[in-house]
Batch of 2 targets.
Target 1
Amino acid sequence: MTATFEARLKAQALGMGFDQAGIATLGAVESAPAFRAWLAAGHHGEMAYLERGAALREDTRRPEPGMRSALVVTLDYGGKEPDGPVARYARGRDYHRLMWDRLEALLSWARREHGSDLTGRAYVDTGPILERDLARRAGLGWFGKNTLLIHPERGSFFFIGALFLDLELAPDEPFATEHCGTCTRCLDACPTDAFETPGVLDARRCISYLTIELRGEVPTELRALLGEHLFGCDVCQDVCPWNQKFARVLGEPAFAASPGLAGDARTLARELLAMSAEEYAARFAGSAMKRAKREGLRRNAALVLGNVGAADDVEALELASHDPEPVVRDAAAWALGMIDRQQ
Ligand code: B12
Ligand code: SF4
Ligand code: SF4
């Protein structure tokens, strides 16, 4: 008996290096009310694009009319590597491009198999899709209390991507159970107490938002709580028992850490403050860390030095306190005050 197109499509995705693949039918998003409530509470902070695309996110048929099904894939980014100043997901090559290229290659394969009139569209955080909702629907995991999608045999250290197709495919069973039970480790461990309730994150307090998405000044009361986190945060994943049991050694060479990004926070912070615009452009070409922009990374570096620096960082911080970028000046002035207080 020949395998169905669905089975061959999923096998092809796994053959291309994805770790999981499942199929979902497109339609109204079940968790849309939760998403609406989250926006209404202002939990998205300055991420205005989430609000702008809200209506499109509520029904997966809206972003690209004509599409009927989605192949949803995941790709692991390790998890066993030591914690560091840069979240694991961003230490190597930018995942968006890498996964998108693979999904495009998968679309070309599907066209060869199914017919050249097949149309499709790849998404890796590149469109108005609630990816975790879609992935749950494709059977790939449940929404943890930390809001991450967790798979019972893989944990949560993986990215999500999707290939939308204008084909009616047989869907997989949605993931219907929930396996957090009475555990609250992620809620208790969050350095900034960013969870409003289990499963609801106030992004405005999340270190990932503060160090990556926020363009302006980090609120003063949260600065010391950033600790050594210079870009992103993995705390609510590290403490999760599902990751402690199932996190893997990084298997995708493209995500291997670039020099200095998995090391010491103080050294990296000093390097960032000393780096010229040209050096920054060369060092972070093709990296997801560019999302924070140069001034954002320098702001974060100054704040980290305020938390872990000492007297011999004063000179670099004084220089940064005259930076052309106001956010860097402000962060450096705060850091100088913190170091001064220790003496
Ligand atoms: C905006 C965004 C952020 C924001 C907000 C995060 C958040 N929790 O909402 C910030 C900048 C803080 C962020 C941080 C991170 N992010 Co992010 N982020 C996104 C993005 C672009 C949109 C998420 C979104 O729409 N949030 C709005 C909320 C309401 O939606 P949601 O969290 O998906 O929640 C759903 C369910 O939990 C459920 N739900 C929500 N509330 C409730 C309440 C109840 C009662 C119920 C029943 C259900 C429910 O409904 C929601 C809608 O479907 C997605 C990519 C995408 N297009 O989906 C990546 C994405 C979610 N991020 C990702 C990653 C890796 C991270 C970080 C781990 C990065 C890091 N190490 O720093 C952290 C994790 C922080 C955390 N605890 O969430 C991955 C997650 C993969 C996974 N296994 O889940 C995604 C999917 C990107 C990708 N393509 O792989 N992120
Ligand atoms: S990523 Fe860090 S700051 Fe954000 S919710 Fe998780 S533990 Fe809290
Ligand atoms: S730490 Fe516990 S509560 Fe949080 S997501 Fe993991 S299992 Fe769920």
Target 2
Amino acid sequence: MIEFIEQHLAVFIDPSERVFFVHLLLALVAASAVCSYRESRFDLKSQLSSLLKKDYWFNRSTFVDYTLLIVNAGIKGLLVIPAVGTRFAGAFAFGKFLQMNVGDFMITGAPWLLIAIGFSLVLFTADDLSRFLLHRVMHKYDSLWRLHRVHHSATTLTPFTVFRTHPIESLLYFLRGFLVFSFVTGIALWLFRGQLTALEILGVEAIGFTFNMLFANLRHSHIYLTFGRLERWIISPAQHQLHHSKTHGHPNYGACFALWDQLIGSLRKSDPKHLRTPLEFGLTADESRHPIKESTSVQSYA
Ligand SMILES: [Zn+2]
Ligand SMILES: [Zn+2]
């Protein structure tokens, strides 16, 4: 029983998890800083006091988030990881496969800092692109949308809504992360054998860590944090909130980089009017009854 609880509470004490307690606290600090900055237009008191209300954290919508958090962590910890193995094992296996089947192809002489930065950027970009692609197909195909609408059925967005995914979608995201990490890291281990250490591989986690720490928790919140002109390049929390809106046709599939949405014309920047008129989250009556039909209201930002 203690093991079971430890396993589920581990998400709060694991720095690589989005809801690591330090990330949550920093998100609250960032939120209050943003609110103070906008005080003239934005009701700081009511925003922060709404965060402290019991009803915000405990209602029918958040109950589903917490239940799925436990179910998905249980499936992942008890079934998926024992069956598939860790990402590092996958990367070493793929590196070895390349060495045995393609042969030795080692790059030497490159400065380690360049290798580490290059590898970090490639892995982070590949991870972000694969998240975008999977999210895009979750909206495109009826059978996948039936799974993904569990996430979109949240009417209250809290940092825990990130765990509100159908167990099959959760499995698909796990496999996506596993494959991208194994593939990119496996190639890097093959190319730079002995020059790329676990420490450098962890450098990539540090990029994700910083992003998580600063903004990712606010994506699923009612704090409408916009990035202004930067929204052309980086998806802001407000842009992900537009993705959850009932009335905007779910634009902005991206997680971090906005480029992918720009390329397919699904990028939409935030509208300051929602600082005054809050967005309504959840599914439309039609979406909860029927499989999705592609919305036509998504506009290109370009
Ligand atoms: Zn979505
Ligand atoms: Zn979301």
